[in-house]
Model the fold of this input.
Amino acid sequence: MAYIVVALSGGVDSAVATALLKEQGHIIEAAYMKTGFHGGGGVIGTCYNAERIADFLSVPFHVWDLSPDFKSEVVDYFVHSYLGGRTPNPCVVCNPRIKFGPFLERARDLGADFLATGHYARKEWVVSTGRYLLKKGVDPQKDQSYFLHRMTQAHLDSVLFPLGGMLKEDVKKIAQTLGLNRLAAPESQEFCFLGRQNYTEFISERMGLCLDEGEIVDTRGNVLGRHQGVHRFTVGQRRGLNLPSTEPYYVVEIVPSRNKVVIGRKKELFSIGAVVDHLTWIVEPRAKTFSASTRIRFRHREAPSTIHILDDSTVSVMFDSHVQAVTPGQAAVFYDDDVVLGGGWIRESIKA
Done:
């Protein structure tokens, strides 16, 4: 029996995680993270859902206000990444810096043995190495290991993933059987802080932006149009270019220093590799060059690759086959089958 604090968001996954751990006989408390930003149903709504679930399950409930940390570590990063021509992934940043940072510290202050979350991922202790592995969740459609690749051994030692070995459909069935589904907030695919805004509206509102128009050019430098700010674009984007053509155009590069958006045809989106920096490793590399499967965004099928270590914080990744829309600012995560080796941030793509 352990004393466990569950990160209870108000959704089905964390609700079922709470119920399962309580059923196992652990001492359970639940905590909701207040960010200061309105998410899917609004902060009040999701906090309300979380409190209802905690009351239904008869577990003590806390609301921890991490608004200043969330703004400085997640929201500011999100905004400035887009302004710098990079496409951010706030969930990758939020986990180590917030959920497994000050949120985990609050749980430790209560004396908890573990913090549990509703992530679909697994951890495994390896006796021979004296270290934890981070592994994919067994449900390939819900696996969230990509978002967790920056976890440290200290994080893994303190965290539980009760749903990692389950299928989403089974989690839904448990929620329905227990009556949790009627208490939980609807699931959202958007970032938790955007609410009903799209990301360009959010950035413009946060920064009070009134940016000068810039040029949209093709890969040969020909000016084809104008844009209203580089933060409105991401590599691989097709919609919103408003450039009639017999063949679709795609964003292939963003150059914020020159306020330019470079577009090209689909074939110009493909890369043979990427430079990845700000690395973290869960499994330390044993050689300067090794093979791995690389995922360059959450919904991307991993690409067989060769990883070349350039220095302590940088690698080059060479794909076995050309990969489409390698996007600066996104995370590149390296896998050996279902084991997360580590990852970093894509700095640039390598063209043929």
The domain at 3-178 is CATH 3.40.50.620 (Rossmann fold). The radius of gyration is 22 Å. Helices lie at 12-23, 43-57, 67-83, 90-99, 102-109, 153-158, 168-178, 199-207.
